[in-house]
Design goal:
Helix content is 62%, strand content 8%. The protein has helices spanning 2-7, 11-23, 30-43, 46-59, 65-77, 81-90, 96-108, 112-124, 131-144, 147-159, 167-179, 183-192, 199-211, 215-228, 233-245, 249-262, 291-294, 302-313, 330-342; strands spanning 270-275, 278-283, 320-324, 347-350, 355-359, 362-363. Among the domains are: 1-93, no CATH class; 271-363, no CATH class. Strands 2-1-3-4-5-6 form a six-stranded mixed beta sheet, with helices on both faces. The protein is globular, with a radius of gyration of 21 Å.
Amino acid sequence: MIGACVRGGRSGDALALFRRMQERGVRPDDVAVISVLSACSDLGALELARWLRRYVERSRIPKSPALCNALIDALAKCGDAGAARAVFDEMPRRTVVSYTAVIDGLAMQGRGREAVGVFEGMVRAGVAPDDVAFIGVLTACSHSGLVEEGLRWFGVMRERFGMEPRMEHYGCVVDMLGRAGQVERAERFARAMPVEANAVVWRSLAAACRVHGRPDVGERISRRLIAEEPARDSHYVMLSNVYAATRRWEEKGRVRRLMGRRGVRKEPGCSAVEIDGEVFEFAAGGGGRDRRRRCGALRWHSEKIAVAFALLRSPRGAALRVAKNLRVCADCHLAIKLVAKAYAREIVLRDRSRFHCFKDGLCSCGDFW
């Protein structure tokens, strides 16, 4: 049942079942632990992931590759790359999945040099990287501005390992160039791809245009995507973000109204925060007056509610950890920077693409994510 809840996207229910299991004195085996670790990964439940690691040690559960990989993945995705690396280092036999889990965790934290080092260690150890491992190292290079390093590994895929890059790999390169501010080079690369670039590739380029002062290109790309896929909410959101970045509020409002007329609904934002071992989940628009009037209001974004709740429920000075299912918006990103400074707190937010560590009014992402 726990596994079914996780697969069905109901990780909160999975943890509730696990607590009931504990209350009834049923000891989890390795299969149950792996399922609960997946729920921890989804919700950012770091303390529970750490507890499960200790439980495995105390109970002397055999550390199969699958269990160790699940521990690495959960600890890394919950923000404890050090513990994930410790589990990895203790493994007698490491698979490509083990290496990839560590690389992905480091990539999400913007620790690209370390991720590349792990990738190089995998190659030296004679473990052949697969296409997923290459996505991990390219993502790490993208999030850390290692453009030439990333391009080198992209070339190595075919030249040394005989692997044909997939759409995801090409997308990583476009994202990497765009994040580095090389917008024109990224667009040329996307147009020269041997396969037609998909919407994900173009959206990453549009995001780069918004950040690096090329709203004209971002608007052109977003409008074309809307024309091609008028039912996809993310295209409208991207265009709306481009307008917001240039303070074109009327155009932003028109995009939202267009979504309403076409019946396009934005994927709801959900955030989770763990306090004293218990996970609390929040949805955008929670609390207050008429939901139809609240929906989409910046003040009701789920990460803001989660941070406010955590400030009220946690000890003074304690670090806060929040996990969100979507990319954090610019307004919430700025708000959390200010909250971290005003309350002298470290606030760690994991969104869809990476970790943001807010401290003293700054963010580890350097305001580009």
